[in-house]
């Protein structure tokens, strides 16, 4: 019976039918909107806010649907519902169509939508009229077990570009190894972006230090510079380039594009600096191997004396990817404190043991520490920090709930850090 229910839930005809009913019930609202989808393993949220900011600076009313919330317009935000303990990036078809209908009523013209692999696999966005789509990147992520394989995950991402019509735009990352695969399967006009010299919209980093990251944008005869001083990282150069590529093809003036990206505020839980005096404490959502590498590179640009990393070995990842995270962390951090993160119905100690079993014969014992209680792990990192150090707390970002042994508990890394720092002041 369980297998039958699972098969029905994954039935594409049934899923498409539900999505079309949602469209029909709310009057196909996407036909009255200009909708852009953003998908990829990392960078979807930041990219969505870059694009939202550009469109607003260009004078348009913009809605946004994504992990951090659902913006009906510039002033009205609806917090996303949670399934289990995580916010829903791409909600179910009926709720999604309700959001789009509400945007139409409010006079919103453009919609920027993060489109998750689950949202695509389950055809939640089927029937939506996408004017364009952005691919940030594709790499191993914590959803692979749910998808069954990396191939299935990759095919889910491709579905967004298969939905595009000939008069729409497919904005593809020329630096991504799957660029050609995505280019082949879409009918849309393909526009490439990247640091690769052959990209249609080319980025060239010309200045990088602890406070600024300036890059030059080149497209045919057009050249201009952007300073990512609010979102300063190499991976955000690519995120920004993707939105620039789309905006230029919408004939938005490059001055508005520059203004939109440079004025876009840093997102909560994305390289969020909680403390700066003596030593820094930074909270970041990075939870994939590629995201680990990118955030570590950004930290090293700060030239810290030492890096103390705290993260949880959570079970959504296959063992080989968790071992890759262990390799990256112990190779780059002066001290890695392994702790708990979402463990589902498992005991988080099992994940910690997997980490310890991997590093015990590979890493010097003074370079790692295991503390099951995440709060105590963060506290220990703070106790050990010295002037000039950076504490990097990874994996959760702005998440406010954690699933431990199947029990949902409130846990916000940023608030926990602030509470611990207050304790030390007493």
Which terms summarize this structure?
426 residues, alpha/beta, UDP-N-acetylmuramoyl-L-alanine:D-glutamate ligase, Protein-Tyrosine Phosphatase, Chain A, 2 domains, 11-stranded mixed sheet, 15 helices
Shape label: globular
Low-confidence stretches: none
Assign the CATH superfamily of the largest domain: Mur-like, catalytic domain
Instruction: Classify the secondary structure makeup into a structural class.
Output: alpha/beta
Could you say what the CATH architecture of the largest domain is? 3-Layer(aba) Sandwich
CATH class of the largest domain: Alpha Beta
Strand element count: 21
CATH fold descriptor of the largest domain:
UDP-N-acetylmuramoyl-L-alanine:D-glutamate ligase
Task: Determine the N-to-C terminus distance.
Answer: 58 Å
SS element count, helices: 15
Neighbour order of strands in the largest sheet: 4-3-2-7-1-8-9-10-11-12-13
- Rg, rounded, reads 22 Å
The tally of domains stands at 2
Helix amount: 25-40%
How can the largest sheet be summarized? 11 strands, mixed
What is the residue-mean pLDDT, rounded to a whole number? 90
Strand % is 15-25%
Element layout with pairings:
Blueprint lengths: L1 H8 L2 H14 L8 E6 L4 H14 L4 E5 L2 E3 L5 E2 L3 E2 L2 E2 L5 H13 L4 E5 L2 H5 L8 E6 L8 H4 L2 H14 L5 E5 L5 H7 L3 E6 L6 E8 L4 E7 L2 E6 L6 H16 L4 H10 L8 E4 L4 E5 L4 H12 L6 E6 L6 H14 L2 E5 L8 H12 L8 E3 L3 H11 L5 E5 L6 E4 L2 E4 L2 H13 L1
Parallel strand pairs: 1-7, 1-8, 2-7, 8-9, 9-10, 10-11, 15-19, 16-17, 16-19, 17-18
Antiparallel strand pairs: 2-3, 3-4, 5-6, 11-12, 12-13, 14-15, 20-21
Helix pairs in contact: 2-4, 3-9, 3-10, 11-12, 12-13, 14-15
């Amino acid at each position: 019976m369980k297998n039958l229910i699972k098969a029905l839930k994954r039935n594409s005809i049934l899923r498409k039918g539900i999505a079309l009913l949602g469209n029909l019930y709310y009057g196909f609202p996407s036909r009255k909107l200009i909708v852009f989808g953003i998908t990829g393993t990392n960078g979807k949220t930041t990219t969505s806010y870059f694009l939202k900011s550009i469109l607003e600076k260009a004078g348009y009313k913009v809605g946004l649907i994504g992990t951090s919330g659902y913006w009906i317009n510039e002033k009205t935000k609806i917090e996303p519902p949670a399934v289990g303990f995580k916010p829903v990036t791409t909600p179910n078809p009926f709720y999604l169509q309700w959001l789009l209908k509400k945007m139409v009523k409010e006079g919103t013209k453009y919609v920027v939508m993060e489109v998750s692999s689950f949202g695509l696999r389950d055809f939640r966005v089927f029937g939506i009229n996408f004017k364009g789509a952005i691919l940030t990147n594709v790499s191993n992520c914590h959803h692979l077990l749910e998808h069954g394989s990396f191939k299935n995950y990759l095919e889910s991402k491709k579905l967004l570009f298969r939905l595009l019509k000939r008069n729409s735009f497919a904005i593809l990352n020329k630096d991504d190894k799957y660029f050609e695969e995505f280019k082949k399967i879409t009918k849309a006009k393909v526009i490439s972006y990247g640091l690769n010299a052959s990209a249609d919209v080319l980025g060239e980093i010309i200045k990088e230090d602890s406070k600024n990251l300036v890059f030059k944008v080149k497209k045919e005869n057009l050249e201009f510079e952007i300073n990512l001083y609010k979102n300063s990282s190499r991976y955000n150069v690519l995120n920004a380039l993707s939105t620039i590529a789309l905006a230029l093809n919408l004939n938005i003036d490059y001055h508005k594009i520059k203004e939109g990206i440079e004025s876009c505020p840093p997102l909560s839980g994305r390289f969020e600096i909680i403390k700066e005096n003596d030593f820094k404490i930074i909270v970041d959502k990075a939870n994939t191997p590629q995201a680990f590498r990118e955030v570590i590179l950004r930290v090293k640009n700060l030239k810290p004396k030492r890096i103390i990393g705290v993260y949880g070995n959570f079970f959504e990842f296959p063992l080989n990817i968790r071992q890759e995270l262990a390799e990256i962390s112990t190779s780059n951090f002066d001290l890695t404190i392994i702790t708990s993160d979402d463990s589902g119905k498992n005991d988080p100690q099992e994940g910690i043991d997997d980490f310890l079993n991997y590093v015990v014969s590979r890493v010097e014992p003074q370079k790692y520490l295991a503390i099951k209680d995440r709060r105590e792990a963060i506290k220990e990192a703070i106790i050990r920090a010295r002037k000039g150090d950076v504490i990097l707390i990874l994996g959760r970002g702005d998440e406010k709930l954690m699933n431990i042994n199947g029990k949902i508990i409130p846990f916000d890394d940023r608030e926990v850090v602030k509470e611990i720092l207050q304790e030390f002041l007493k």
